[in-house]
Amino acid sequence: MTKPLADRVRGLGYLGLGVSDLDAWRAFATGVIGLQDNGTAADGAVQLRMDELARRFLVYGTGEDDVRFIGLEVRDAAELAAVAARLANAAVEVTQATAEERRARDVADFVRCRDPDGLDVEIYYGPKVEYSAPFVSPRAIGGFVTGEQGLGHAVLTVRDVVAARRFYEELLGFSVSDFITMRMGRGEIELVFLHCNPRHHTIALVPLPMPPPKRLHHFMLQAHRLDDVGATLYLARDKGVPLTAELGRHTNDHMVSFYMRTPSGFEMEFGWGARTVDDDTWRVERHTSGSIWGHTTPRA
Fold first, then answer.
1. pLDDT of residue 233
2. What three-state secondary structure class fits 78?
């Protein structure tokens, strides 16, 4: 495998979402997923917690029903400067955050750029943590796998996978975990799964020939307990949340999970038990199926 870059992003720290119905999102995030409502950010976003960080999701009532930005964490100011310089040297426009923007994100500093498909990417360090006020889920669940693995993963649709891979791998320091070839209509597409820490994939790229209706296909959160996956599946059914894939285990990360549709139309994967990546021993693989078993489309 290619040795990871020394100065690179370390994880998916936060997601910024633009939604049409903030009340529906609050109810879904707290009552179904089990996130904690942590009030309103300086820029008006609803803040949602899932661990010791003050926020992992920033939800705006701006109506896009899609991802607005992703926040990728680096270790410190020196690493932020190194990543920003590498982007600038590759002719990627990099904008320094203002003091007001830093307050809204509650981070020490960040810079903003755009990926080849126009998605805002915020690279930051120094997030606010609240050890004195531990995360408390509104539900009786055992919490989520975060820490060095970040909040989870995001699967993004892209028009030019070559350009997207260059951006995320060569400029931000992601490494390939594996590929999945999937049939689509009469042809095939190849999904690319990228990691930047022990989580099997933090970003996955889905190449689509036409501009997709949404950049965010889905995001994934990983529970500490398998029972929480089962309980959430049945809770979602009881609450009338549309399921998009039944319980199953993925071929590449071995995650046991199911998928449900968020109030914005894109999907959310709720999972448990994924294998992790050790860059010293990991072998890039190819798969021709997304699941070992399950993940079937729910019957009407």
1. 98
2. helix
